[in-house]
Amino acid sequence: MARITAGVATSHVPAMGLAVDNDRTADDYWRPVFAGYEWTRAWIAQTMPDVIVLVYNDHASNFSLDLIPTFAIGCADEFAPADEGFGPRPVPAVPGHPDLAWHIAESAILDEFDVTIANKLEVDHGLTVPLSLIFGRTERWPVRVVPIAVNVIQYPPPTSNRCFMLGEAIARAVGTFPEDLNVQVWGTGGMSHQLHGARAGLINSEFDLAFLDRLVTDPASLRKMPHLELLREAGTEGIEMVMWLIMRGALGDNVLERHRLYHVPASNTAVGHIVLEPAH
Ligand SMILES: [Fe+2]
Q1: Which of 103, 193, 196, 263 is catalytic?
Q2: Residue 147 forms beta bridges with which residues?
Q3: Which terminus of the chain has a lower count of CB atoms within 10 Å, N or C?
Q4: How far apart are the CA of 125 and the centre of ligand 1, in A?
Q5: How many CB atoms lie under 10 A from the CB of residue 201?
């Protein structure tokens, strides 16, 4: 049977992708941030997953305001990097796992969790930057990916609790997939940041650090966090953190925290990264 062996969360700051693409990760500005991923890079080399269920949001790259699925699952053989206005990132296409993706879609929908099936999907920095942070520059990604795209761009995004429930549904699906696969679930986005309006530049470290703690020890309290609290405390783009709850929901009640990074700022965002393993 397939099994979920770990959960990873990380910010997906576009400028961090640029730093990787342009070999700037050792610059004075970037070195402290990327140093926080070295533990993870060594760890994942030892425990390389076959598949990553990668929860991210599309930033009006593949989808647009014409079509806004709340949750979409990528079932294609591979996913090309999207052109976000400056040409696609110079990273390889992301190989999919259609069998597992269709299984998750079927399991989730029969579990009364209606996800949109995407048989063609271009992936933007929300998905490719996390891969670059952990696998670096490469000619070929070492894992296959099942993308789960979440709407956090246009109100109303899904609730915290609904995201947590999707993680639980993904765990049930993976647990009934007959192939012996090592599966990780990643959640991306955040942490606190606001790109527009009077509060542009907002970073709330106190909130972020408490969120990381609660993610580990008290996830039930995060299920109840309303959008308004996320907006107020973490800024308009901080709503991306609901995607971390999908990852957390897939890991079960108790987890072991293996690694954590919190760094301010990168670009105009607080960078958070955490590695969790289910504790049975
Ligand atoms: Fe984002």
Answers
A1: 193
A2: 54
A3: C
A4: 8
A5: 11
